[in-house]
Design goal:
The chain is an alpha+beta fold. It contains 6 helices and 11 strands. The longest helix has 30 residues.
Length: about 220
């Protein structure tokens, strides 16, 4: 089973549950710290998760570590299946301290409870958008070089940042090893690519803090098609 969160509490935040719908006490909020586990391979797909704050790393362990997604606040992660005994193939760990609301799949699929099914519909819409984005990313990983893969990942990490000009800090601190695991490369290659990007003005490197220029990264992708 997953490591138990250090603290499980019921908070006032209820996204995507609005006033007048199912009470928030039905869906627990869990606090996780780095080093703990939200779910791991082999565990039953029993819940969808809504991230309230912090960041979560979803990754595959085999054949080598590969980060599938960095989940940001307001996003849904986990997996669902119509099979009663479906199991996770990846794992989810806190990248930073985080608060997560857990939605049991059996409850949000309960067609006899309109309030729960309405919540489930909104969750599935959020989940579907994330899944579509993930499919597009992995298609590019198969056919693009590491520079384009890294540029796409940096743009994706800034998906919640305001559309401002110039350099914008990434929402989470990432090591070069993390970025390598996100694009299927090595730390040495990522270090060389980031230094190249910095010379072109696409990014600015300050230890583990990376600032990226979305407009220039998009222009780079357009010019290198």
């Amino acid at each position: 089973m997953s490591h138990a969160p250090r603290k499980e509490e019921r908070l006032a935040e209820r996204p995507p549950v609005s006033d007048g719908e199912a009470p928030s006490t039905i869906f627990p909020v869990r606090r996780y710290l780095p080093g703990e586990t939200i779910y791991r391979p082999g565990e039953r797909k029993a819940e969808l998760f809504f991230l309230i704050e912090g960041a979560v790393k979803v990754w595959a362990e085999q054949p080598s570590p590969l980060i599938l997604d960095i989940v940001l606040p307001g996003e849904v992660f986990g997996d669902v299946s119509v099979e009663a005994d479906a199991r996770h193939e990846e794992r989810a760990d806190p990248h930073t301290a985080c608060l997560v609301r857990a939605f049991p799949v059996e409850q949000i699929l309960d067609k006899h409870n309109p309030s729960y099914s309405a919540i489930g519909l909104r969750l599935f819409k959020l989940y579907s958008r994330k899944a579509a984005s993930a499919r597009l990313h992995w298609k590019t990983v198969l056919f693009e070089d590491v520079r384009r893969r890294l540029a796409r990942r940096l743009i994706e990490l800034l998906r919640q940042a305001p559309e401002t000009s110039g350099l914008t800090p990434l929402p989470v601190r990432l090591r070069q090893e993390d970025l390598a695991c996100m694009v299927g490369s090595t730390r040495v290659t990522i270090c060389q690519t980031l230094n190249e990007f910095e010379r072109y003005g696409l990014v600015e490197l300050r230890r583990s803090l990376i600032r990226a220029d979305r407009a220039k990264l998009r222009e780079y992708l357009s010019m290198t098609e």
